[in-house]
Structures are given as structure tokens and as C-alpha cells.
Write a structure and sequence with these properties.
The protein contains four helices and 16 strands. It is mainly beta and about 290 residues long. The chain has two domains: about 120 residues, Immunoglobulin-like (Sandwich), CATH 2.60.40; about 170 residues, Jelly Rolls. A hairpin with a 6-residue loop joins strand 5 and strand 6. The longest helix is centred in the first third of the chain and has 16 residues. The N and C termini lie far apart (about 70 Å).
Length: about 290
Amino acid sequence: MARSAMGIAAALLLAFSGCVSDAGSSASVSASAAPPTFDEATGAIEGYVVNDAFEPLAGAQVGIKDSDQATTADAAGRFALGSLPPATYVVLAQALGYEAQARTILVEAGKAVELQFMLVALPTEEAFTQTLRFEGLIECAWGVSGVATGNCLPIQSTLQQYNLPNPTNTKIIGLFSHSDPKKVASGVFEMEWNPSAALTSGSLLLNVEKELTGIIGGTRYGSAEGKSPLRAVTTDDPWKDLVLTDTTKDQVQTRTFPAATNPPTFVANQRFTVYATACYVEECSDIFSAIKDA
């Protein structure tokens, strides 16, 4: 009687599945599942795996928990597990891109019981970007090729970096906290400025670093040097490396200096703007620019 009922259900589902796409099937998926085997001492489980649009999930994996009994759904979503001793089993079904499902079923000797799974597609995350902005000021700084770059008063950047009272207006360090660092795929750091009258070279330097790297710098994820605008592209490393349990190192930072040139660069009262963009889920497009959209 159980096999007869299963045959009717199979015929109905086959008739319906002929109206839907089986694009999920592949050459490695069996065209049709073999009938389950059982005898007077054993039983079997047979059924279908479909999605929430009632389309067969060809290639779905179906198995019994805590055992090596497993099979793959055929092109019509059918599966069969045979020669099972009478018992209560937990059967698991899973397919790529779908939420796994577990069902409990009683298997009796001499019978094949029917079990159907409807798997719900996992939500897909859409890629998006988040841009933060920093307005900076180089009050007095220099750069010499082959030597270094720095502020006229080195204490200025140290005071800002360690969030100490700063008697000057210098702001060369931008700190950026994005909403979900674990999902950041890459970053684009852009900087633009209008050269001040006291800028002896049109070139500046932009470094992308881990927060609190010290006055001489530290872990650098990217840099750019030249005339406005500058663009530094990074991977997901700046966000992966954040120590989120330490609130003193939970941000990505940029530092801006005059470029090290020959003859030397001297800068006074140079304002600039940094745009720090985190691209979530997917890497930033090569043509992405926050400056163009600003």
C-alpha cells in the first residue's frame, strides 16, 4: 500500500515538474533515481527535494544523520535510501545556495516511506559601498627625496595620533570606522586638494595604515603620491587586521604628508579632503570614484 501511494505521488510531481525548469541539473546528476531496496526485515525512504518555487533541486544531497547512508537527488529531484533497519531516523537535505533542512521519520520493515523536502533559498547579499570623509590640514610640513617627510613640529602628528590636546590646527590623520568590517571586500582611498600659495610642489603623499602605528608609521596597506587627486586601492586586509576588541586599534587610518621630492617640498596651510570607501561583499569597481560623486 505504501509503495502504491508513493507511485501516485511520484506521478503527480513528475507531471508538475515537467512545467518547470531543471536548469540546476548537470551531467553529474543521475537522470533518474533507482527504486529503493528493502525486504521483510528492512525498510526504505524515498521522496523529492524541491525549492520554494516547487522546482526540483537536482544534485541535492540527502543523507541520514550520524551514518554514511547518503544519496544525491536526480534530475527530477527524486532520491531513495534503501535497506534500512526499522528505526526512527533524522534525514538531512542540503543544496548549494539553500538552507539545509532536517526531518524525522519512522522506517518500518517491508515498507518504503515517503519524505519530501522543500528547501528555502538563502538570502543573497547585495554589494554596496560606504564612503566616509575627512577634512585635513597640513599647517607646516616638508619632504626631501631620499631623506623623509614630516611636520615642521613633529609633536603635532603625535598629539593627534594619541588623541592628546593639540595646541595647533594640524590634522593629517584620518580615522575611519566602517559599519561591518568583516564584510568589506576592498577599499578605495582618494584625496583631493587645491594647492595653497605656500605649496612649493603640487605633490602630496597619502598612506593607508592600521590605526596607531606610531609616528614613524607601521603596517601599510596602500599609498599614493603625486598631484591631486590621488587614489590608493586596497584589498580587505585593512579591515581583516583590525583588533576589534581593542578600541584603540579598531579603525583604518590615513596619514597625509608632502611628497619627498628633490628639490625639497615645503607646505604651509594646505587643506585636503580624504574619501575612504569600503566596498562590501564585492570588490570595488576599477572605475569607482567617490570624488566624482561628491
